[in-house]
Design goal:
- InterPro entries: N-FG_amidohydro (IPR007709).
- It comes from Fulvivirga imtechensis AK7.
- This is N-formylglutamate deformylase.
- By secondary structure, this protein is α/β, with parallel strands linked by helices.
- The chain has one domain: Zn-dependent exopeptidases (Aminopeptidase), CATH 3.40.630.
- The chain has helices spanning about 35, 40-45, 55-60, 120-150, 185-200, 215-220, 250-270; strands at about 10, 20-25, 70, 150-160, 175-180, 205, 225-235.
- The chain has a 7-stranded mixed beta sheet with strand order 1-3-2-4-7-5-6, sandwiched between helices.
């Protein structure tokens, strides 16, 4: 697919009265541009394992609630939209942290053919073509929503395999709400989300082992009434036991809880 053929993002507009929430899905894209596609291990990119599979489908109830959505078109293996553009590490506890332009999978497999890893010039090109357009569009949407409502919330939606030993020796909790140690959102919004999520059978953690990636930290400015929260979810909650296929029954349980959470967040936002 040629990089000129599609934008690096797709925006889904609300189907009903707009509310001040934007859901971002930066890791569900699977496209690879034609000009670099041959640089990768072709077998691996048939189904990039580190993709946040079906997250945009899991949240596709949101437009009917008045929520705007944006999702990435390209794979995170082209460039990771949730990493610092200068490749500053998000964590310093020794865990595996893939690069801005990843060169290996979460399992440690090299994703590029020999001598095809991107250099600095290519990384800069990818920032310009894929990374900053996504950030600019998110900024544009947030600005418009804030102008209309006086406040806005970015919800950055992610998923991960239940067990990734290079990141954590134990299985992950069902969901992890991240706000960079309560720096990216008003405390009332954080509490609203936590209470709503905990009102279920899900095992919920807060800021551990994830506390929000670069998107949450970059856009979360509660002092300016621009809030950001990240939700990481283990794939087993909405996929089959092998974490390959979408499981409608499991997904519907999670969707019901997410809908209730957004209902409560919409109400809380009105009071801020």
């Amino acid at each position: 697919m040629n990089e000129q053929e599609i934008l690096p993002y797709h925006v889904i507009e609300p189907e009903t009265g707009r509310v001040p929430i934007l859901i971002s899905v930066p890791h569900s894209g699977t496209a690879f541009p034609d000009n670099i596609r041959d640089h990768y291990d072709q077998k691996l990119i048939e189904a990039p394992d580190d993709t946040d599979w079906f997250v945009h489908k899991l949240y596709d109830f949101a437009p009917a609630m008045g929520i705007t959505m944006i999702r990435a078109e390209y794979s995170r293996w082209v460039i990771d939209l949730n990493r610092d553009p200068e490749s500053a590490p998000l964590y310093d506890d020794g865990r595996l942290i893939t690069e801005l332009c990843p060169t290996s999978t979460f399992a440690g497999e090299p994703i590029y053919k020999d001598h095809h890893m991107p250099g600095r010039k290519e990384i800069e090109r990818r920032l310009e073509v894929y990374y900053w357009p996504y950030y600019n569009k998110v900024s544009e949407i947030l600005k418009a929503l804030k102008s209309k409502f006086g406040k806005v919330l970015l919800w950055d939606a992610h998923s991960i395999r239940q067990y990734v030993p290079l990141i954590r020796k134990e299985v992950f909790p069902d969901v992890i709400l991240g706000d960079n140690n309560e720096k990216t959102a008003d405390r009332l919004l954080i509490e609203t989300a936590l209470v709503s999520l905990k009102n279920s059978k899900l095992k919920v953690e807060h800021n551990y082992p994830f506390k929000g990636g670069h998107l949450t930290r970059y856009f979360g400015k509660p002092e300016e009434k621009q809030h950001a929260l990240q939700l990481e979810m283990t794939k087993i909650n909405y996929m089959d036991n092998k974490e390959i296929h979408y499981d409608i029954d499991r997904a519907n349980i999670v969707r019901k809880r997410l809908k209730a959470t957004f209902d409560n967040l919409i109400k809380q936002l009105k009071s801020l």
